User: Fold these one by one.
Assistant:
Number 1:
Amino acid sequence: MFLSLLRTATSLTQIHQIHAQILIHGLPLQTHLISKLIDLHSIDYARFVLDQTPSHADFSWNSLIRAYTLQGSPKDSLFLYLKMLRNSEKPSNFTYPFLLKACSTLGSVFGGEQIHTHVLRLGFGSDLFVCNSLIDMYCKCFCLESARNMWDDMEVRDEVSWNSIISGYVQWGQVEKARDLFEEMPIRRNVVCWTAMINGYGKEGDFVEMLSLFRHMLVSADEVKPNAATMVCLLSACSALCNYEVGRFLSVFIDVNKIPLNVILVTALIDMYSKCGDVENAQRIFDGVSCKNLPSWNAMITGYMQHGLLEQAIDLYGLMKAQSVKPNEITLVNVLSACAGLGALELGREVHLYLGRNGLELNVILATALVDMYAKCGKINDACLVFVKTSQKDVALWNAMILGLAYHGDGRDAIAVFSQMKRAGLKPNDVTFIGVLSACNHSGLVEEGRFQFSSMDDKHGLSPKLEHYNCIVDLLGRAGHLEEAYELVKSMVIPPDSIIWGALLSACRIHRNLELADKIGGVITAMQDPNIGFCILLSNIYASAGRWKDVAGVRRLVKEQRIKKPSGCSWVEVDGVVHRFVVEDTTHLKSQEIYGTYEILVNHLKAEGLEI
């Protein structure tokens, strides 16, 4: 009766009651009790029962060793095995596979070798299941020679034996050795083996061979069909290469062949579509499945961020919280970046508070995102506070602080932070010098800007890029050194873009240098896709000089090439919600109230005598 009750029990409360009756009646049901407790994931209780029972079947020991290993407590598996030996309990061939798995989880080849010695001593050296586990352990502990020796000594090999050694070679980058074994296999190659080889070529970056092997798989005599793991390997390669054509084919293949969508495959599809620029399909897949985990949410939020859809990223983060999905570092870094882009200070502060309240470590990646967010939201003092409190600083964090100070016009402070960075022994990169030159530009530090620009190549071995040239040209132009800036642009090793020419043209307007404006205007209007903003700037320069014929020429160019100015937009954060406004927008939920308030304000201003 109690055995039947034990088998049907579904809660620990029921188990406690049954356990009490087993003890009262002295029933020998401890093995069944331990097995049931393991099924209910109550490992500590199962261990308690084991420790209180004078004698055990090897099944109980093996079950608990297996449970410890599978539930992420490999050290407890090994300690339990030692206790088993001290109690003079005899292990079986079922004891060792999960002990070896525990060793591979810990990366303990020493422990694995000791277990191997016990295996040989107790006569399990020819057991197929144990031998396969030994090969897997040696492979995962990067002892490929030991794994191969073990494999070579086996008298009988099954699919698992071949899969283990091939996967081992693939795992450690020896794809050609894996391929040789793959081609030699005398037995049917299953989907695990094919997937391991496909994954191997993916790790090597050999996309062509990867696809070739996939096609060969579909028509091979093995008659094996790809599974979700196979498709994840292929989709991951498409994501890395942004190969939309193949990625789209694989997505259709999954639909047509009705390959079951697990959460890992769904995430891989979302990631592929996002990285290939098809956010609409990524969202369609995300919305269409119920099996979402944290990586799925992160993949979709990251996809929005990569394509500048900051509002959608924040909205999805709100939905994620509403569904009680706990964010991790990747989520929060993306959300902080969105807050920085939108100026959503209130939400950014909320994320910062979330870190503290939930005991999440403020590592250098999160600190960098916070510094960037506070700086771009106008709170440079808060950015400095986060920077100072972060003990381990990398180049990205120093860069974020330098850029933040630069954009706030604190050029000398930015240069001071740059000096501290060098004293700390960190090597500046391209982004560092964008911040340093921007700091000089925003603060008018011409001599410092010249020095830092020349030091890029002379002292740090960095070749200036377009962004660096743009900063120094803008700095020289604003300071009135137009000819020097113009000569620098002409001497550029890389072709200047419209932004650099536009910076120089803007300086021409400030300093009324019409002659140089003519030269630059000729370059800008001759471009294949002229920048509308710079065309308007050139037109205004001509208008201020009374050259109406040239004004008409620029306007005619704009009209003929159908150059359009993108609609301006702005954001405002109210109660943690970001609202977006576009010129003449009527899509906002409260657009009638907004326009009504606008009319009231206009009428009020007119009543005060102002012309609107």
Number 2:
Amino acid sequence: MHIPRKTWPCFDDIFHLFDRSMIDEEEENIEEKRAMTQARDVMSHCIGGSNVLICIDGLVEGADVVFFQFQSHTVNGNKCRSLATTPNSPNKKIDKLKSWHLSCLTSSDARIFFMNHVNAKALNNQEVMSIMKNIYDPCRGNVMSIKMICKLVNDKIAGGETTRLTKFIKKFQSAPVDPKMQIFIILEAVFSHSSLGEILSKLAWRCFAAFCNVFTRENCGRPFVPKSPTRTLFRAVAERFLKDRSYNLETHSVLEIVDKIIEFLVQLDLLNFIDGFDCNQTPRQFYQVSSDILQDFGEQLSGNKDTSRKFHALLIHEYISMFSGINAAFGSNEIDFYMLKYLPLHSMQANDFEDASLTLQDARFIEERLKFMGLLNGIKKHIEDTRKLAGKLKHMKEDTANVFMAISYQNCTRALVKELLHENTGIIYGGNKKETLEAMWMLAFSLFSSFLVKDGCAVVQKAMEFEHKNDTNRIFKMDRKLIQNLSKTPNGDNNKCTRAVILLGSSMVQCGMKKVHAMNLLMNGLTQLAVSLGLESLEVARAHVYVGEYFYRDFNMYRYARHLFKQALPTFLRELGKESEELYDAIILVGKSSIHVGDLDTALDILEKIDPKLSGTIAVDVKIKLGYIYTVKGNHDKAQFILNEARAMSSDQEITNRIDEMYEKSVQLSGRCSI
């Protein structure tokens, strides 16, 4: 099967993050599997009818390979293949899955591999080859170790360092068994007196360490880094390094040295060189660390967090100096585009929180970011950076973090509105209306999550206007009057904003918007209200029941719902008394949710005690629940007795039919015949 091109997909928006501290582990696993299935469906849609080979290296759980079985949507369905490596094979047979056990190279295969990867100059050096006999044996068939040995041999012979190579080979014969340690030992030898010479070898070591530390990210350990920021970082490192050592730059410029070091790292397979495209489909060249082991090695080279912080600061300083005219010839738009996306991140990594804060609040920076990245990706990235920095600032001063978030999101809102108004035709940045609306919702949701209700409502109102103008399928299904009323909520009134956020979450559930976002607003609003008014407040107790009913009825998260109902009981009992209807309602909800989590004993104990105190439809509902529990527990006499009581109290035909069905089931299970 011919594979015409390579691509690297990313699903960073598939998983929606929210506070899971009170969510049952089983429910969380279900949510994760649902997200993975959604990601698989998205990828299947992107593949279409193309010939595609998906390579997944290091899949932790072999059974998860089912989430990478993409459908090609073709008649024969054979155009997509997935190839995965995993240390844990699936326990059960999976349809359309073939598996092979991978083992290390045999001694003869290792010899062939070694001979194929050392160059002609090494093969023709009889002195070295006699010493290198069976050098691959200590590698014990590990392909990567053998390959790094070959790279070492080629470079040392190219630099005329045969004596040092001979010493290393003798020492390596007693190398440790662990492949990772072997590779680290080989890499140390590679960077010691390489073909670059002593000083530039040390510089290459420092540049590789900088690359691994500066460009790694939380969601991607080995990202593809554009050529321009790579050269900018290496130039900054080289200037500092060579200046300290009084290196003579008359023969070669710093830029020539940088390019020489990049070429050296690529030749050693420490960095991959890749031709590709940026987010605007502009052809770009990228570099990437070749493997996770090499990434670990590079990160360890820096030694400590302080060195890593200095590397980030060097990149920022070098980039800023390019605007002063000193290095104007070196710069290009590519570095500007890179910094529009990652400058705040590098500032945070350099521990320069003040600079990161000013950047993320800067209106011009936000506008340029949205223009370059597009509304959806630009707003997504701005929200991500704002949340990350706010989290760091809260450790120092929560008020400062809240003010920063407010200004950052408000300026982002203004930039978004400005971009929308700029296009009189209503076609936004590339004409993708759906992405525009998704960007607006993402920003509105972040504003609501930060309790900036007034600003969030302004974005929602603008989005509703845009939907109406462009006859687009509605994403914003909330009630216009509700949004109009909530838009008057002052940002300074914490309690009003908190109540509004809970109301918005419930409105989202009722109108069928994203449940995970509705959960987030309901949980955040409830938590903030409890912090503000205290858990013993009657309003907070009522809010627990109000929010809990959504988790019970709409989200089917019964364990968390029961937790919320229980939280309200002490306050209801103290403030309203033991005969309060609200107390009864909360107790019944605890009993109902206990049934759903399988805790029938607790449910039976609660509902039996409260049943005599009830009347009307709620009494009928409780008796039906008791009838169900008695039936499940095998106490059919009690089940039939209480179901007869429920039938006598009910005048609703639908409920009566339901009772009759339960009664018949109980009779059948008890082995009797009804008369």
